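FIELD: query
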Amino acid sequence: MLIDAHTHIDMFDDATLPTALAEIEQHQIFTLSVTIDVAAYERAKQIAASNPLIVPLFGIHPWEAHRFARDLDSLALLLAESPMLGEIGLDFLLMKDKSLYPKQFEVFDYFLDTAVSQQKIVNIHGLGAETAVLERLEQFQPPTPIVHWYSGPLSLIDRYLAVGTYFTFGVELLYSEKIEQILAAIPPDRLLTETDNPGANQHFAQQPGTPALIKQVTTKMARCRQLSAAELDALLNQNFTRLIASSSALTQHWQAAQP
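FIELD: result
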């Protein structure tokens, strides 16, 4: 089974959603649909309700953190029901207003503290804030974090690995030698794949991404790691199964999606 460990199913509009859902079904893509706020999570839940291949996850993206920092306790029920937490984290690159950084930390810390108490995996954004994110992971030690689209310093990778991090690689792998270098530095047992659809592909191909992009990502990853398609597929499925082993909710989703 193909695995898209970081995408945004809620961001497909009514015109493009049917095609996205058809591709997920056609290619049997197990889809972790992270969200950026409450409204996105509610839409993702609606879309996923009749599709066992899609798992909706609740998160507050760092770009949205300032909207929710004043009333974090109101999010408690959503955190409790979500089997994984994300997309959460910090962004010091695209968020230019430094006055909002304390709100990012406040929301990120709240989610990390919840992840520890509920023993939930976190799906993390850390653009331009790789050191700060790492320091938070070392401080809180949430179970098995996933860092999506890592593009930071190679020098931090060993510390990320030491806190149990898995890394998802997506469409930038198709275009970037730097991402290839990062891929080469990650042990095989910490690799996962993503698309960050529909927005990520827009940066590189000037058109929204669709779920079938995951096949291009896996093809490029297999070539970079000198593996056959079957070997990579087996590796990624083993990694994902190991990742979610401690989560009965995610394991149930995974088992229900098997053909």
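FIELD: remark
Residues 84 and 121 are 5 Å apart (CA to CA).
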